[in-house]
Amino acid sequence: MDILILLIPLSLVIVGVIAWIMLWAAKNGQFDDLEGPAHSVIILEGPAHSVIMDDDTPPKPNGPAKP
Predict the structure, then answer these.
(1) Do residues 44 and 51 lie in contact, with contact meaning Cβ atoms separated by under 8 Å?
(2) What is the DSSP letter of 59?
(3) Checking phi first, is residue 45 left (phi over 0); if not, alpha (psi -120 to 50) or beta?
């Protein structure tokens, strides 16, 4: 039972530290855009990615035009 004198204050300190970390992360914008990074992986942009997702047609060649 003497160990409870140590464990209860220690657990309260750990809960306080976790709460402080969560509040700090929320204030600094860590939870602002949760879906943006996940969608940026599947959205192809730029000249190197000329094929749109779910499109079965091959990409157009970017070489010189034939007369």
Answers:
(1) yes
(2) P
(3) beta
Running DSSP on this structure, what letter comes out for residue 1? -
Reduced to 3 states (helix: H, G, I; strand: E, B; else coil), residue 63 is coil
Between CA 26 and CA 5 the distance in angstroms is 33
CA distance 36 to 15: 30
34-51 residue pLDDT tens: 777 777 667 666 555 554
Q: Find the radius of gyration of the CA atoms of the chain.
A: 26
The single residue listed with the structure tokens 């990409």 is 59
Overall pTM surpassing 0.70 (yes/no): no
